[in-house]
Amino acid sequence: MRKTWWASPAVVAAVAAVLVTGCDSAGQADSQQKPATSATPEPSATSAAFGRTAAQSDIDGATAAAGLPASGRPEPAPSTPPAGSSTERDRLKARAAACSAHWMSADAELREIGDPRGKFDATTAELLKRGWRVTTDRREDKADAKADDTAGAKSSTVSITLKKSGWTLMGRHHDLGSVDMVSFQASEDACMNRFTKREWELILNQEGL
Predict the structure, then answer these.
(1) If we measure between CA atoms, which residue out of 82, 83, 72, 76 comes closest to residue 97?
(2) pLDDT the model gives residue 48
(3) pLDDT mean values, one per 10 residues, the chain (209 residues)
(4) Cross-strand partners of 157
(5) Contacts 24+ apart (CB under 8 A), 78-82
C-alpha cells in the first residue's frame, strides 16, 4: 500500500492553499495552450456513498453549528481544468480538487466572534456527531515569541485528524497572537493515494517534500 505521505500537516496546508482559486499564480505563463482532456479521477467505492459534496456539507454544517463565521476561503478550484489550459499541473490540480473539501478563516476579525479555539474544538465535536472519528488525538504545540516580535506575542497551534468513509480530515487552529487561522481540510484517501510523489511536487510547484 502506498504511504499516505500527502496527509502530513505541512503538505495538507500547502494543498489547501493550492486548491483554491486566487491562491496560486505559478504555472500561468504556459496556460495558453489547447484545452485539456478529461481530468476527473475514477470514483472509488467509498466516494459513491460519501463524496466531496457530503464532506463539504459536514464541514460547513459543523463550523456553522459551532458558531464560526462563513468561510473566508476563495472559491474551490474547479474539478475540471480551466478552458484554454492543457498543462499537466492544471490537470493534476483538477484531479485533487475533485476529491477534496475545505473550510478556512484567517484574519483578525475571527477573534470578534470570541474564543476561536473553543469554537474549533466545538467544530470537532460537531464533526464527531456527524460520524467522523478521531485517528490522531488533539495536539497543541506552543512557540515563544521571536526576538524581533515587538508585540511579544506567543503562538500556538492545535491540530487533530479525523476519518470517515475513506476520507481523512485535518483540522488546525493557529493562534499567532494578533491573528487567528482556523482550517478544516478533507481528502478522499483512495483518490489521493493514486497520485505519485512527483505529481504532488508538481501540483505544489516545489521539490523535496
Answers:
(1) 76
(2) 54
(3) 54 60 40 34 55 94 93 59 71 87 83 88 97 94 60 80 96 87 93 89 67
(4) 141, 174
(5) 78/21, 79/39, 79/40, 79/52, 80/38, 80/39, 80/40, 81/35, 81/36, 81/39, 82/31
Compute the distance between CA of residue 29 and CA of residue 48 in angstroms, rounded to an integer. Answer: 36
Inter-CA distances, 104 with 36, 71, 85, 165, 173, Å? 29, 5, 27, 22, 10
Q: What is the pLDDT of residue 163?
A: 97
Q: Which one-letter amino acid corresponds to residue 60?
A: D
Assigned C-alpha cell, 138: 488533539
Distance CA 73, CA 58 (A): 16
